[in-house]
Amino acid sequence: xxxxxxxxxxxxxxxxxxxxxxxxxxxxxxxxxxxxxxxxxxxxxxxxxxxxxxxxxxxxxxxxxxxxxxxxxxxxxxxxxxxxxxxxxxxxxxxxxxxxxxxxxxxxxxxxxxxxxxxxxxxxxxxxxxxxxxxxxxxxxxxxxxxxxxxxxxxxxxxxxxxxxxxxxxxxxxxxxxxxxxxxxxxxxxxxxxxxxxxxxxxxxxxxxxxxxxxxxxxxxxxxxxxxxxxxxxxxxxxxxxxxxxxxxxxxxxxxxxxxxxxx
Length: 264
Hints:
Blueprint: H1 2-7, E1 17-18, E2 22-23, H2 25-34, E3 40-42, H3 56-68, E4 73-76, E5 101-106, E6 118-121, H4 126-137, H5 142-153, H6 156-182, E7 188-189, E8 197-201, H7 204-212, E9 225-229, E10 240-244, E11 257-259
């Protein structure tokens, strides 16, 4: 997304974000008052890398602000199906009364990375989105779409989601316990309510020491341990690791380091 913004000759403005409540709406309002904002991009559910789920009231407040100023919002909701609780979380689209939300989701996180199939509910911008889709990619392979559609009709997707939600919830508890046991004192971990990534933060010296002690971590269940230094993605933030509970993330993180331990 940052590359796309740059190609358009636009500038991305970072908004302070709370690790529990999400984007700081007051700070966003101040930015809107000072600058001309073309669009707002938000990941309200299981945000990457913090993992938070914005409370419904905060989502409503955000949409009230953006609706007042007629600012479109791109909602990245690729982890929406991977919630740990009993109910699917709400989306910004639920609070959209003017068609300003371009809701985007995908099967690549919840089903398989092999099928790069996603979808969008672009609200009032449908015509523009369809035109851009045609100009940039022309078409999406039909065979994967047909295969996924058949899988959905047979309720295979729902069974799959029930299984992986339970798996990721268990893995999150195990991984949190392992970080607390084997990583240096002072290491903080996120408390995600969904998806398959756990974030942890420490000072740089502790950050390096934690990696050197990775042999203490053990392989639990099916998922290995994948480590990505988020500092390479967010250079102005405190050093942070992302620990993935899903083997599908392996090989996808560029400069990340994969660690796999055999069962003992």
